Amino acid sequence: METLDPLQSIYNSQVKKSPILQADQVLSSAKSALKKLKKDQYWTLGILSTTLLVLAFFFYEIGQFGDWKLITGLSLMLGSLGIRVFLELWSRLQLRQLQPHQATAVFVEKVRRYYENRKRIQFVWTPIIYLTYGIGLSFFLIAIQPHLSFAFFVYCLITGIGFWLGFIWVIRKSYQKERETLNQLGRITKEGY
Quick one: which of 138, 132, 135, 143 has its CA closest to 79? Predict the structure, then answer.
């Protein structure tokens, strides 16, 4: 039995991981990922809500006295942003239900459902919202063009389209970060439990 002594000493010298420590690390990682998701969602909601309020104020002050193109354009822009804010608030309520201290099967199932709902929002609703906002912006620009000088209209055209493209970029960037965080959360739940 002398030949097994070196193997036994190597085995004894290895650092043994504590299962409690590993569970604490998994719980900590899950909490960190959820915190990041919540923070990113606050930013998205803040940006969208501010834009919605500015457009609503503009519609209240000027849009109600405009022609049908102006009213239609502003209504489409307001409607698409309103739907987007509603979807984000709905997701926010679902995110609140994700609690890492829940039973493993319940937590993993809720993460999976949340991820599926976010994918549906990203791949079904978001393109419709982009398109609706773009159509509304087009109607809006067509309606204000006769009332503005050429230079100011070009300025409105550039800033309007720039905002629309910036809006698309911000939302897509937030989706990429969110998907990375959700994938990380999914890996944590699979590895840790």
Answer: 132
Helix (H) / strand (E) element for 192: namely helix 150-192
14 inside domain: no
Q: What is the count of structural domains for the chain?
A: 1
**Boundaries of domain holding 166:** 26-191
Closest CA to 37 of 128, 118, 116: 118
Cβ neighbour number for residue 105 with a 10 Å cutoff: 10
- Render pLDDT for 126-177 as a digit per residue (tens, 0 to 9): 899 999 999 999 998 998 898 889 999 899 899 989 988 888 887 888 788 7
Who contacts 100 (Cβ-Cβ below 8 Å, separation ≥6)? 27, 30, 31, 34, 107
Question: What's the predicted TM-score (pTM) here?
Answer: 0.72
